[in-house]
Amino acid sequence: MHGNIYCTSSFDKVNLKFDGVSSRLKLTGLKKMPVTLTWHGDNCTTVEISGLDIGWGQRTPLKFDEGQGLWTLQKDLHEGKYEYKYIVDGEWICNEFEPITSPNKDGHVNNYVEVLDENPDNITSAAVRKRLTGDDPDLTSDERLIIKQFLEAYVDVE
């Protein structure tokens, strides 16, 4: 989910880019967990990822591990579900060895990773995750305030 939020004040028109669920999860203080993504094969010269926590307009390169013959990216991600796609030598492609989404409204499919707190005793984390990642996310007034402060701190004024 990508969207532009337009705010109008008496002084300036503000254009904010806000990137859906991963940003909401980041702002609520959910834990970060280590994630490793891999692309098998040494018959390519570059492997990158787009989507994930950086958005579809950005790319992050994977590093080639000669000993294992695979490309890897290690990241700490906040709890949540992240969609992404590999870009191998310039071609956008899904990794058939990782989970793949159903086609979205535009017919695109992506890989995805679901980052969960592996501590079964952390009931609070599970409840927050369920509330924020459901079909109708419900933010508390404190969470709304955190998001408002975050957006105000990162405003690009035209």
UniProtKB/TrEMBL annotation:
CDD domains registered for this protein in UniProt: E_set_AMPKbeta_like_N
GO MF, any single term: carbohydrate phosphatase activity
GO biological process: starch catabolic process
PANTHER family: DUAL SPECIFICITY PHOSPHATASE, SUBGROUP, CATALYTIC DOMAIN, PHOSPHOGLUCAN PHOSPHATASE DSP4, CHLOROPLASTIC
Superkingdom of the source species: Eukaryota
Organism the protein comes from: Solanum commersonii (Commerson's wild potato)
Protein name stated in the entry: AMP-activated protein kinase glycogen-binding domain-containing protein
One Pfam family linked to the record: AMPK1_CBM
InterPro entries named in the record: AMPK1_CBM, Ig-like_fold, Ig_E-set, Starch-Glucan_Phosphatase
Xref: Gene3D superfamilies: Immunoglobulins (2.60.40.10)
GO cellular component, one term: chloroplast
Boundaries of every AMP-activated protein kinase glycogen-binding domain copy: 33-118
